[in-house]
Design a protein that fits this description.
Layout lengths: L11 H6 L3 H25 L2 H4 L6 H19 L15 H9 L4 H28 L10 H46 L3 H6 L2 H10 L1
Helix pairs in contact: 2-4, 6-7
Length: about 210
């Protein structure tokens, strides 16, 4: 790209043999890596661990330590870093963020109230059935009244469970859309160094799981 426009496209070898800016970019990157490695080797050579004389074979250990330092610095200069993984339990902050991202605490309160209302309607149906079928109500039992009230309680229970399911689904979809929009915004506004050091498969995995 140059000035926000695509000036060349193709495979890696084709771009490298074309003699344009891509070859110079690759050469500059290799030169910078060589300078980093050379600087690390020079620091290891001039380190006091190797310069200080030791006795009883400790000088060999010092040279080994210097070599280990060179290896560690060289390992840190690689372009693509290893993927880091979190271990342990999921913190409560993650659950709070997921539940309150879409509608805040009002969405959580609405889901809790609908759940309580649904459970109350189920309990009301059981209590009404137990009350009308008790022995004390055997003489004054009215079948038509019993069926009407029981049907009303069952209808209210069905309506409440449908509203609750719709609310939970809407809350989950809205939260997923917000998270996906934030991920997409972060990727689109990331610097080019992020795409140079992060494999595309790792980015796609994060977006798919997000």
């Amino acid at each position: 790209m140059r000035d926000g426009k695509i000036v060349q496209s193709g495979k890696y070898n084709e771009l490298l043999n074309s003699g344009m800016d891509f070859k110079a970019l690759v050469a500059a990157h290799e030169t910078s890596m060589e300078l980093v490695d050379g600087h690390a080797a020079a620091q290891a050579e001039n380190s006091p661990i190797k310069q200080r004389p030791q006795a009883n074979g400790e000088e060999v250990n010092g040279e080994n330590k210097a070599l280990d330092q060179v290896k560690s610095v060289k390992g840190s200069s690689k372009l693509i870093k290893d993927e880091e993984r979190e271990t342990g339990r999921v913190s409560l902050r993650v659950y709070k963020l997921y539940c309150t991202e879409a509608f805040g605490w009002w969405g959580v309160v609405a889901v809790v109230l609908l759940s309580l209302l649904w459970q109350s309607s189920l309990m009301a149906g059981d209590y009404w059935l137990a009350y009308e079928t008790a022995e004390e109500r055997a003489t004054s039992f009215n079948p038509s009244l019993f069926i009407r009230i029981y049907a009303i309680i069952a209808g209210v229970s069905v309506v409440v469970i449908l509203v609750r399911a719709f609310t939970v689904t809407l809350l989950g979809l809205k939260t997923a859309q917000i998270f996906f929009s934030q991920i997409l915004h972060s990727i689109l506004h990331a610097p080019m160094s992020f795409f140079d050091t992060t494999p595309s498969g790792r980015i796609l995995t994060r977006v798919r799981l997000g």
